[in-house]
Write a structure and sequence with these properties.
It contains seven helices and three strands. It is mainly α and about 180 residues long. α2 packs across α4 and α3 packs across α4.
């Protein structure tokens, strides 16, 4: 039986802090990119997903990727279309569906924003060998899956907010 390796006391804490830092940096990056592109965060999520899908997807795919309802996804596509970031096209394989396509203008803007970041990240990643990168990919994929499971569980949990609790407390009686 293989004995479990004893980890340095602070390693797990440093790992947790590093992952939180990546998440925080991701949030900040999305906020800055949304501002640069003149979009709100929800609209950026749609543009970002389209960009990651080589510029096209169905409304259903966009809905699943953003977590929006079908009605909210329609409103998102309407806003992106009005702003010139997306166009609707008939699906050539299924005439009941439409494809959402990133506009050429939006694609060029995404390239201008993401390409410098991608170049720097690729430069960093080139310092690692294939085994190390495979390990990092596995770690991130397993962590993302575990995190997603935790979020699904959390969605079914409801905590009373402090404001709600304060409203439900009996009011103090005034003294005569």
């Amino acid at each position: 039986m293989k004995q479990k390796e004893r980890l340095p006391k602070d390693l797990v804490g440093r790992l947790f802090a590093a992952i939180r830092g990546v998440g925080d940096q991701g949030e900040l990056t999305r906020a800055v990119i949304a501002e640069v592109l003149g979009l709100n965060k929800t609209d950026l999520a749609g543009v970002d997903f389209l960009y990651s899908q080589d510029g096209t997807c169905t409304a259903g795919e966009l809905s699943r990727a953003t977590g929006l309802t079908s009605g909210s996804t329609t409103a998102l596509i309407d806003r992106l279309e009005k702003a010139g970031y997306a166009v609707r096209e008939d699906d050539p394989t299924d005439r009941r569906r439409q494809i959402v396509r990133l506009s050429d203008k939006a694609h060029a803007r995404c390239e201008a924003v993401y390409e410098p970041i991608r170049k720097e990240m690729f430069k960093l990643w080139s310092n690692y060998n294939a085994f190390e990168l495979e390990l990092i990919v596995r770690f991130l994929n397993e962590g993302t899956k575990l995190h997603g499971t935790g979020l699904e569980r959390l969605r079914s949990t409801r905590f009373d907010s402090p404001a709600k609790k304060a409203q439900s407390l009996p009011k103090a009686r005034k003294r005569p």
